[in-house]
Amino acid sequence: MKRRKHIVQEIINLTPETFILRLDRQDFQFEPGQYVVIRIPDIKKGREYSIFSATTDDYLDFLIREIPAGEFSRYLRHLTPGAELDVDGPKGYFILNEKTKQGHPTILIATGTGISPFYSYMKSYPNLNYRVIHGVRYANEAYGREDFNPEKYILCTSRSKEGNYFGRITKYLEENPVDPDTICYLCGNSEMIEEVTTVLEKYGLLPENIRTEVFF
Fold first, then answer.
1. C-alpha torsion angle, residues 96, 102, 107, 111 (rounded to 10)
2. What predicted TM-score, i.e. pTM, was given to this entire model?
3. Which residues contact 112 (CB under 8 A, 6 or more apart)?
4. CB half-sphere exposure, 106, CA atoms < 13 A
5. Which of 22, 36, 152, 202 has the most CB atoms around it within 10 Å of its CB?
6. Of 130, 147, 136, nearest to 57 (Cα)?
7. Any idea what the CATH number is for the domain that residue 7 is in?
8. Strands 153-157 and 210-214
């Protein structure tokens, strides 16, 4: 693991708030679910971002939400192709366990840009036995939805009825029981993770089958 320079290839705008930062891949190796620290050259400040792209892609994608008061995300959004960024990584252990890779029933539960590691899982391991439950406010925030198998994807929208389910993820899970033998991966804000963990534990899931990553 070391710091290295990567070149901006493209900024892909998805919504007024969200964009994909695409960097050149070089020989960067990672496990789906890991993250990096992106830094502006010659500046100590950096931010952690999960890798959105697959291990088979020849680029590195990062799904980023521009925070109104966040100078860093605003800076990244307005970069142009050819700009340089420093990248530290990969880091983190929110990776798939062997049972999941071998086809054990798995549910991927995310809110907002917390879908990033799950998109990387799915693109890197196309034969996973998974279901995705993605909670967003509006349907246009269903990042990467078109690439998931529609039969394995549930979009929960809290402020519109354009998804598969109108309401929060917690409510959906309370109405749709989870088999206690399922392995669940949770990624999103801490409130969601706490609430969903409580629901899953009521269904009898063991702690080792509830794997979490907090997104701020």
1. 30
2. 0.94
3. 65, 135, 136, 141, 188, 189, 215
4. 23
5. 36
6. 147
7. 2.40.30.10
8. unpaired
How many C-beta neighbours within 10 Å does residue 148 have? 22
Asked if residue 71 and residue 139 are part of one domain, the reply reads: no
Give the rounded distance of the alpha carbon of 54 from its chain centre. 12
Last residue of a domain, one of 91, 111, 128: 91
**Domain boundaries, position 152:** 98-214
Are the C-beta atoms of residues 122 and 153 closer than 8 Å to each other? Answer: no
Q: State residue 216's pLDDT score.
A: 61
The pLDDT > 90 percentage for the chain reads 90
User: How far apart (Å, rounded) are the C-alpha atoms in residues 135 and 178?
Assistant: 17
For residues 78 and 123, state if they share a domain. Answer: no
Angle, CA of 190, 122 and 79, to the nearest 5° = 70
Residues 68, 55: Cα–Cα separation, whole Å: 31
User: Both 106 and 177 in a single domain?
Assistant: yes
